[in-house]
């Protein structure tokens, strides 16, 4: 399951007099993630630390402790992103030291907790692969077919292209393709085969359990 955050967000909490500001953002590439980290560091240039972690996919993940004791900031932040199964997201936690040392365990809890809080407030969404499929008909059949297409809920009509033939582009999750072909064949009383015309990803919000 591919998950991401529903929206970019910034949260803040005070832990033992230190300010922890978590900036969370959706990104598509490592370059975007690194640019965001640079931007946050520039914005919070006077912070004691700007620790970061990002996950683009299973192969592209990175974290930084930015001067905190090794393994107490970036890795715990990355661990939260992995545990939540998030991809294409970057987190930067800016810390303003408040005078009280937290110890290694306290730092791990603070940085991980900051990211967890931000994710909780941002919400999560599943990235569903949506296929685009085309079939055509004679112009004289178009009106009847359009009426049928608008009456069903199995898929949506993405586009209608009129020419010597009328091409209908349908939009649906990939796993519904066979079911859609069967429905069209039955509804139109002739064999219909859908031709793949590409795909896109749609974010479906995951509702929180109460």
Report the sheet with the most strands, covering strand number, pairing sense and barrel closure. 5 strands, antiparallel
CATH fold name of the largest domain: Ribosomal Protein S5, domain 2
Number of strands: 10
Briefly note the structural class of the backbone.
alpha+beta
Number of domains: 2
Inertia-based shape:
elongated
Radius of gyration: 24 Å
How would you name the CATH homologous superfamily of the largest domain?
Answer: Impact, N-terminal domain
In the CATH scheme, the class of the largest domain would be Alpha Beta
Subunit organisation of the chains: single chain
Work out the helix count.
5
Instruction: Summarize the helix and strand pattern as letters.
Output: EEEHEEHEHEHEEHE
Tell me, rounded to a whole number, the average pLDDT.
94
Helical amount? 25-40%
